[in-house]
Amino acid sequence: MLDFHTKTVTGYIEGYYGKLLNWEQRKFLIDQLASHQFNSYFYAPKEDAYHRQYWRTPYSNEWRQAFADLTTYAQTRAVHIIAGIAPGLDFNYAHIPNGEDFNALLEKSRQLTSDGASVIALMLDDINEYDDAGYGCFNSEGEAHAQLANALQETLGQNILVVPRAYAQEIEQESPHYAEEFSKHCNASIGLFLCGKNIVVESLAHDQFQGFTQTHSFSVIVWDNLYANDYCPRRLFVGPWQGRDACQSIMLNPTGMLATDALLLDLMADGMHSLPSEQSYWQLMEKHGVPNEFRLLAKYFMHPPFVFDTENVYTSEHKATVDNLQAQLDALEHLLWRWKSPLAIEWYPYLFGLKHDLQLANGLLPKDRILKTQLAPLAAELLKPQ
Question: For residue 342, what are the domain limits?
Fold first, then answer.
Protein backbone atom coordinates (compact mmCIF):
# COMPACT_ATOMS: atom_id res chain seq x y z
CA MET A 1 0.00 0.00 0.00
CA LEU A 2 1.19 3.51 -0.80
CA ASP A 3 1.64 5.48 2.44
CA PHE A 4 1.26 8.98 1.06
CA HIS A 5 1.21 10.50 4.55
CA THR A 6 4.79 9.56 5.45
CA LYS A 7 6.48 9.02 2.10
CA THR A 8 7.19 11.34 -0.80
CA VAL A 9 5.06 10.47 -3.83
CA THR A 10 6.58 11.06 -7.26
CA GLY A 11 5.73 9.75 -10.70
CA TYR A 12 3.57 9.81 -13.80
CA ILE A 13 -0.12 10.61 -14.27
CA GLU A 14 -1.95 9.08 -17.20
CA GLY A 15 -4.64 11.70 -16.82
CA TYR A 16 -4.87 13.55 -20.11
CA TYR A 17 -7.45 13.79 -22.87
CA GLY A 18 -6.87 12.57 -26.40
CA LYS A 19 -4.49 9.66 -25.75
CA LEU A 20 -4.92 6.16 -24.35
CA LEU A 21 -1.83 4.04 -23.76
CA ASN A 22 -1.71 0.28 -24.10
CA TRP A 23 -0.43 -2.07 -21.40
CA GLU A 24 3.06 -2.48 -22.86
CA GLN A 25 3.45 1.29 -23.13
CA ARG A 26 2.50 1.60 -19.47
CA LYS A 27 5.14 -0.97 -18.55
CA PHE A 28 7.69 1.05 -20.52
CA LEU A 29 6.80 4.13 -18.48
CA ILE A 30 6.98 2.16 -15.24
CA ASP A 31 10.54 1.21 -16.24
CA GLN A 32 11.29 4.90 -16.76
CA LEU A 33 9.88 5.71 -13.31
CA ALA A 34 11.94 2.97 -11.68
CA SER A 35 15.12 4.24 -13.36
CA HIS A 36 14.64 7.57 -11.52
CA GLN A 37 13.38 5.97 -8.30
CA PHE A 38 9.98 7.57 -8.81
CA ASN A 39 7.46 5.46 -6.96
CA SER A 40 3.98 5.92 -8.45
CA TYR A 41 1.96 5.54 -11.65
CA PHE A 42 -1.51 7.12 -11.58
CA TYR A 43 -3.98 5.33 -13.86
CA ALA A 44 -6.64 7.92 -14.69
CA PRO A 45 -7.01 8.25 -18.48
CA LYS A 46 -9.91 10.43 -19.55
CA GLU A 47 -10.29 8.30 -22.69
CA ASP A 48 -10.96 5.09 -20.73
CA ALA A 49 -14.75 5.07 -21.03
CA TYR A 50 -15.16 2.94 -17.90
CA HIS A 51 -13.05 5.29 -15.81
CA ARG A 52 -15.29 8.34 -16.33
CA GLN A 53 -18.12 8.32 -18.86
CA TYR A 54 -19.47 4.87 -17.96
CA TRP A 55 -17.92 4.60 -14.52
CA ARG A 56 -20.77 2.44 -13.20
CA THR A 57 -20.01 -0.31 -15.73
CA PRO A 58 -17.62 -2.93 -14.36
CA TYR A 59 -14.40 -3.60 -16.21
CA SER A 60 -14.30 -6.81 -18.23
CA ASN A 61 -12.44 -9.88 -17.01
CA GLU A 62 -9.93 -9.40 -19.84
CA TRP A 63 -9.24 -5.81 -18.77
CA ARG A 64 -8.94 -6.83 -15.13
CA GLN A 65 -6.41 -9.52 -15.99
CA ALA A 66 -4.32 -7.01 -17.94
CA PHE A 67 -4.54 -4.48 -15.09
CA ALA A 68 -3.53 -7.13 -12.54
CA ASP A 69 -0.57 -8.03 -14.75
CA LEU A 70 0.43 -4.34 -14.81
CA THR A 71 0.24 -3.99 -11.03
CA THR A 72 2.28 -7.17 -10.59
CA TYR A 73 4.91 -5.84 -12.98
CA ALA A 74 4.93 -2.48 -11.19
CA GLN A 75 5.55 -4.22 -7.86
CA THR A 76 8.71 -5.80 -9.27
CA ARG A 77 9.92 -2.28 -10.12
CA ALA A 78 8.94 -0.80 -6.72
CA VAL A 79 6.26 1.36 -8.34
CA HIS A 80 2.77 1.75 -6.87
CA ILE A 81 -0.33 1.93 -9.07
CA ILE A 82 -2.83 4.60 -8.05
CA ALA A 83 -6.20 3.80 -9.65
CA GLY A 84 -8.59 6.66 -10.37
CA ILE A 85 -12.37 6.51 -10.62
CA ALA A 86 -14.25 9.60 -11.86
CA PRO A 87 -17.98 9.41 -11.05
CA GLY A 88 -18.58 13.16 -10.81
CA LEU A 89 -20.34 13.70 -14.14
CA ASP A 90 -23.60 12.24 -12.89
CA PHE A 91 -23.20 10.80 -9.39
CA ASN A 92 -26.41 10.68 -7.33
CA TYR A 93 -25.66 12.07 -3.85
CA ALA A 94 -29.14 11.31 -2.49
CA HIS A 95 -28.17 8.10 -0.70
CA ILE A 96 -24.68 7.84 0.79
CA PRO A 97 -23.50 5.27 1.76
CA ASN A 98 -26.43 3.05 0.76
CA GLY A 99 -27.51 4.11 -2.72
CA GLU A 100 -26.96 2.31 -6.02
CA ASP A 101 -24.36 4.81 -7.21
CA PHE A 102 -22.32 4.52 -4.04
CA ASN A 103 -22.47 0.72 -4.22
CA ALA A 104 -21.26 0.82 -7.84
CA LEU A 105 -18.39 3.12 -6.84
CA LEU A 106 -17.47 0.88 -3.90
CA GLU A 107 -17.58 -2.30 -6.00
CA LYS A 108 -15.34 -0.85 -8.70
CA SER A 109 -12.92 0.40 -6.03
CA ARG A 110 -12.79 -3.05 -4.45
CA GLN A 111 -12.15 -4.67 -7.83
CA LEU A 112 -9.24 -2.34 -8.54
CA THR A 113 -7.65 -2.89 -5.14
CA SER A 114 -8.13 -6.64 -5.37
CA ASP A 115 -6.38 -6.52 -8.75
CA GLY A 116 -3.37 -4.82 -7.21
CA ALA A 117 -3.99 -1.06 -7.04
CA SER A 118 -2.15 0.39 -4.05
CA VAL A 119 -4.65 3.20 -3.47
CA ILE A 120 -7.89 4.51 -4.95
CA ALA A 121 -8.22 8.11 -6.12
CA LEU A 122 -11.72 9.58 -6.19
CA MET A 123 -11.72 12.08 -9.05
CA LEU A 124 -14.18 14.97 -9.08
CA ASP A 125 -12.31 17.18 -11.54
CA ASP A 126 -13.48 18.69 -14.84
CA ILE A 127 -17.19 18.57 -14.04
CA ASN A 128 -19.89 21.22 -13.97
CA GLU A 129 -21.23 22.41 -10.65
CA TYR A 130 -24.59 20.79 -9.86
CA ASP A 131 -27.59 22.93 -8.97
CA ASP A 132 -28.60 22.93 -5.32
CA ALA A 133 -30.96 20.00 -5.80
CA GLY A 134 -28.10 17.77 -6.92
CA TYR A 135 -26.49 17.20 -3.52
CA GLY A 136 -29.13 15.23 -1.68
CA CYS A 137 -29.21 16.12 2.02
CA PHE A 138 -25.92 18.04 1.89
CA ASN A 139 -25.80 21.81 2.05
CA SER A 140 -23.14 22.43 -0.58
CA GLU A 141 -21.09 20.84 -3.32
CA GLY A 142 -17.95 20.92 -1.17
CA GLU A 143 -19.71 19.12 1.69
CA ALA A 144 -21.22 16.52 -0.67
CA HIS A 145 -17.84 15.74 -2.23
CA ALA A 146 -16.18 15.50 1.19
CA GLN A 147 -18.83 13.19 2.59
CA LEU A 148 -18.65 10.98 -0.49
CA ALA A 149 -14.88 10.70 0.01
CA ASN A 150 -15.34 9.98 3.73
CA ALA A 151 -17.89 7.24 3.07
CA LEU A 152 -15.75 5.61 0.39
CA GLN A 153 -12.65 5.59 2.60
CA GLU A 154 -14.51 4.26 5.64
CA THR A 155 -16.37 1.56 3.74
CA LEU A 156 -13.34 0.54 1.69
CA GLY A 157 -11.25 0.34 4.86
CA GLN A 158 -8.15 2.10 3.57
CA ASN A 159 -6.95 5.67 2.99
CA ILE A 160 -7.86 7.18 -0.35
CA LEU A 161 -6.83 10.17 -2.45
CA VAL A 162 -9.19 12.79 -3.89
CA VAL A 163 -8.98 15.21 -6.80
CA PRO A 164 -11.49 17.91 -5.72
CA ARG A 165 -13.40 19.87 -8.32
CA ALA A 166 -11.67 23.15 -7.41
CA TYR A 167 -8.20 21.67 -7.68
CA ALA A 168 -6.50 25.04 -8.39
CA GLN A 169 -6.94 28.49 -6.91
CA GLU A 170 -8.20 29.89 -10.21
CA ILE A 171 -11.12 27.42 -10.01
CA GLU A 172 -11.67 28.22 -6.33
CA GLN A 173 -12.24 31.86 -7.32
CA GLU A 174 -15.25 30.74 -9.36
CA SER A 175 -16.54 28.65 -6.43
CA PRO A 176 -15.42 30.71 -3.42
CA HIS A 177 -16.76 28.42 -0.67
CA TYR A 178 -15.92 25.06 -2.19
CA ALA A 179 -12.48 24.58 -0.59
CA GLU A 180 -13.71 25.81 2.79
CA GLU A 181 -16.72 23.46 2.81
CA PHE A 182 -14.75 20.51 1.48
CA SER A 183 -11.98 20.94 4.05
CA LYS A 184 -14.39 21.41 6.96
CA HIS A 185 -16.17 18.12 6.29
CA CYS A 186 -13.39 15.93 4.84
CA ASN A 187 -11.46 13.43 6.98
CA ALA A 188 -7.92 14.69 7.53
CA SER A 189 -6.54 11.24 6.63
CA ILE A 190 -7.64 11.67 3.01
CA GLY A 191 -4.92 12.90 0.64
CA LEU A 192 -5.50 15.55 -2.02
CA PHE A 193 -4.25 16.10 -5.57
CA LEU A 194 -3.97 19.86 -6.20
CA CYS A 195 -2.34 21.98 -8.92
CA GLY A 196 -1.57 25.18 -7.01
CA LYS A 197 -2.41 28.74 -7.98
CA ASN A 198 -3.29 27.85 -11.57
CA ILE A 199 -4.11 24.70 -13.49
CA VAL A 200 -0.80 25.15 -15.31
CA VAL A 201 1.43 26.80 -12.74
CA GLU A 202 4.71 28.58 -13.37
CA SER A 203 6.10 27.93 -9.91
CA LEU A 204 4.86 26.28 -6.74
CA ALA A 205 4.79 27.42 -3.13
CA HIS A 206 3.12 25.91 -0.05
CA ASP A 207 0.75 28.85 0.38
CA GLN A 208 -0.96 27.97 -2.91
CA PHE A 209 -2.86 25.18 -1.10
CA GLN A 210 -4.15 27.22 1.84
CA GLY A 211 -7.74 27.11 0.65
CA PHE A 212 -7.76 23.41 1.44
CA THR A 213 -5.20 23.17 4.23
CA GLN A 214 -6.35 25.86 6.68
CA THR A 215 -8.76 23.47 8.43
CA HIS A 216 -6.70 20.26 8.24
CA SER A 217 -3.10 19.53 7.35
CA PHE A 218 -4.02 17.34 4.40
CA SER A 219 -1.30 15.43 2.64
CA VAL A 220 -1.04 17.13 -0.77
CA ILE A 221 0.35 15.61 -3.95
CA VAL A 222 0.91 18.16 -6.70
CA TRP A 223 -0.73 17.36 -10.03
CA ASP A 224 1.76 19.03 -12.38
CA ASN A 225 0.50 20.15 -15.80
CA LEU A 226 3.70 21.93 -16.86
CA TYR A 227 4.04 19.84 -20.02
CA ALA A 228 0.38 18.97 -20.61
CA ASN A 229 -0.86 19.88 -24.08
CA ASP A 230 -4.28 18.26 -24.32
CA TYR A 231 -5.78 21.75 -23.88
CA CYS A 232 -3.64 23.11 -26.77
CA PRO A 233 -2.97 20.07 -28.99
CA ARG A 234 -1.16 22.09 -31.67
CA ARG A 235 1.57 23.03 -29.20
CA LEU A 236 4.42 21.13 -27.52
CA PHE A 237 6.35 22.10 -24.38
CA VAL A 238 9.73 20.54 -23.59
CA GLY A 239 11.55 23.16 -21.51
CA PRO A 240 13.42 22.53 -18.25
CA TRP A 241 11.41 21.29 -15.27
CA GLN A 242 11.78 24.13 -12.79
CA GLY A 243 10.00 26.24 -10.18
CA ARG A 244 8.81 23.18 -8.26
CA ASP A 245 11.45 22.78 -5.55
CA ALA A 246 9.06 23.93 -2.78
CA CYS A 247 7.04 20.69 -2.96
CA GLN A 248 8.08 17.13 -2.19
CA SER A 249 5.20 14.95 -3.46
CA ILE A 250 4.55 15.73 -7.12
CA MET A 251 3.42 13.78 -10.16
CA LEU A 252 3.66 14.75 -13.81
CA ASN A 253 0.67 14.79 -16.17
CA PRO A 254 2.40 15.07 -19.57
CA THR A 255 1.50 14.34 -23.23
CA GLY A 256 0.72 10.66 -23.77
CA MET A 257 3.48 10.48 -26.41
CA LEU A 258 5.80 7.75 -25.23
CA ALA A 259 9.23 8.98 -26.38
CA THR A 260 8.38 12.55 -25.42
CA ASP A 261 7.20 11.55 -21.95
CA ALA A 262 10.38 9.55 -21.35
CA LEU A 263 12.32 12.75 -22.08
CA LEU A 264 10.03 14.78 -19.81
CA LEU A 265 10.53 12.34 -16.94
CA ASP A 266 14.27 12.75 -17.42
CA LEU A 267 13.85 16.53 -17.26
CA MET A 268 11.75 16.16 -14.11
CA ALA A 269 14.39 13.96 -12.48
CA ASP A 270 17.08 16.48 -13.42
CA GLY A 271 15.07 19.30 -11.85
CA MET A 272 14.37 17.32 -8.68
CA HIS A 273 17.96 16.34 -8.02
CA SER A 274 19.49 19.79 -8.59
CA LEU A 275 18.67 23.14 -10.09
CA PRO A 276 18.54 22.46 -13.84
CA SER A 277 21.24 24.22 -15.86
CA GLU A 278 21.44 25.00 -19.55
CA GLN A 279 24.24 22.46 -19.80
CA SER A 280 22.29 19.65 -18.12
CA TYR A 281 19.22 20.48 -20.25
CA TRP A 282 21.09 20.12 -23.53
CA GLN A 283 22.88 17.01 -22.29
CA LEU A 284 19.49 15.37 -21.76
CA MET A 285 18.26 16.52 -25.16
CA GLU A 286 21.37 14.98 -26.71
CA LYS A 287 20.83 11.77 -24.73
CA HIS A 288 17.38 11.48 -26.35
CA GLY A 289 18.80 12.07 -29.82
CA VAL A 290 17.54 15.62 -30.36
CA PRO A 291 19.78 17.17 -33.06
CA ASN A 292 21.71 20.39 -32.48
CA GLU A 293 19.47 22.10 -35.04
CA PHE A 294 16.75 22.17 -32.39
CA ARG A 295 18.73 24.76 -30.41
CA LEU A 296 17.74 27.42 -32.96
CA LEU A 297 14.07 26.64 -32.36
CA ALA A 298 13.96 25.74 -28.67
CA LYS A 299 12.47 29.08 -27.58
CA TYR A 300 9.24 28.15 -29.35
CA PHE A 301 8.88 24.97 -27.29
CA MET A 302 10.05 25.99 -23.81
CA HIS A 303 7.00 26.50 -21.58
CA PRO A 304 3.34 27.46 -21.97
CA PRO A 305 2.36 31.12 -21.62
CA PHE A 306 1.40 31.27 -17.95
CA VAL A 307 -1.56 33.30 -16.72
CA PHE A 308 -1.13 37.02 -17.45
CA ASP A 309 1.95 36.28 -19.58
CA THR A 310 1.00 38.00 -22.84
CA GLU A 311 4.37 37.70 -24.57
CA ASN A 312 4.01 36.01 -27.94
CA VAL A 313 7.10 34.75 -29.70
CA TYR A 314 5.44 35.27 -33.07
CA THR A 315 4.66 39.01 -32.71
CA SER A 316 6.50 41.58 -34.80
CA GLU A 317 9.06 42.35 -32.10
CA HIS A 318 10.13 38.72 -32.22
CA LYS A 319 10.25 38.39 -35.98
CA ALA A 320 13.56 36.91 -37.00
CA THR A 321 16.12 38.88 -38.94
CA VAL A 322 16.43 37.67 -42.52
CA ASP A 323 19.59 35.68 -41.73
CA ASN A 324 18.23 34.17 -38.51
CA LEU A 325 14.89 33.34 -40.11
CA GLN A 326 16.62 31.44 -42.89
CA ALA A 327 18.73 29.60 -40.31
CA GLN A 328 15.57 28.60 -38.43
CA LEU A 329 13.85 27.42 -41.60
CA ASP A 330 16.97 25.45 -42.55
CA ALA A 331 16.97 23.86 -39.08
CA LEU A 332 13.33 22.90 -39.56
CA GLU A 333 14.12 21.32 -42.92
CA HIS A 334 16.72 19.14 -41.22
CA LEU A 335 14.44 18.17 -38.34
CA LEU A 336 11.46 17.46 -40.58
CA TRP A 337 13.16 15.45 -43.31
CA ARG A 338 16.48 14.09 -42.04
CA TRP A 339 15.93 13.43 -38.33
CA LYS A 340 14.63 9.88 -37.90
CA SER A 341 13.65 8.56 -34.47
CA PRO A 342 10.52 7.85 -32.40
CA LEU A 343 10.84 11.36 -30.96
CA ALA A 344 11.06 12.86 -34.45
CA ILE A 345 7.83 11.11 -35.42
CA GLU A 346 6.02 12.44 -32.36
CA TRP A 347 7.31 15.98 -32.91
CA TYR A 348 6.64 16.10 -36.67
CA PRO A 349 3.26 17.91 -36.52
CA TYR A 350 4.58 20.51 -34.06
CA LEU A 351 7.68 21.20 -36.14
CA PHE A 352 5.60 21.49 -39.29
CA GLY A 353 3.21 23.82 -37.49
CA LEU A 354 6.15 25.99 -36.44
CA LYS A 355 7.37 26.16 -40.03
CA HIS A 356 3.99 27.52 -41.12
CA ASP A 357 3.85 29.94 -38.20
CA LEU A 358 7.26 31.40 -39.02
CA GLN A 359 6.33 31.72 -42.66
CA LEU A 360 3.02 33.37 -41.77
CA ALA A 361 4.65 35.78 -39.30
CA ASN A 362 7.13 36.86 -41.94
CA GLY A 363 4.79 37.04 -44.92
CA LEU A 364 6.28 33.99 -46.66
CA LEU A 365 3.29 31.66 -46.95
CA PRO A 366 1.49 32.16 -50.29
CA LYS A 367 -2.30 32.24 -50.52
CA ASP A 368 -2.56 28.77 -52.07
CA ARG A 369 -0.44 27.25 -49.27
CA ILE A 370 -2.56 28.99 -46.63
CA LEU A 371 -5.68 27.49 -48.18
CA LYS A 372 -4.09 24.03 -48.34
CA THR A 373 -2.50 23.92 -44.90
CA GLN A 374 -4.76 25.89 -42.56
CA LEU A 375 -8.25 25.10 -41.35
CA ALA A 376 -10.93 27.14 -43.11
CA PRO A 377 -11.72 29.65 -40.28
CA LEU A 378 -8.06 30.52 -39.77
CA ALA A 379 -7.36 30.62 -43.50
CA ALA A 380 -10.27 33.03 -43.99
CA GLU A 381 -8.95 35.26 -41.19
CA LEU A 382 -5.41 35.24 -42.59
CA LEU A 383 -6.61 36.11 -46.08
CA LYS A 384 -8.87 39.00 -45.09
CA PRO A 385 -8.01 42.20 -46.97
CA GLN A 386 -5.79 44.42 -44.82
Answer: 291-386
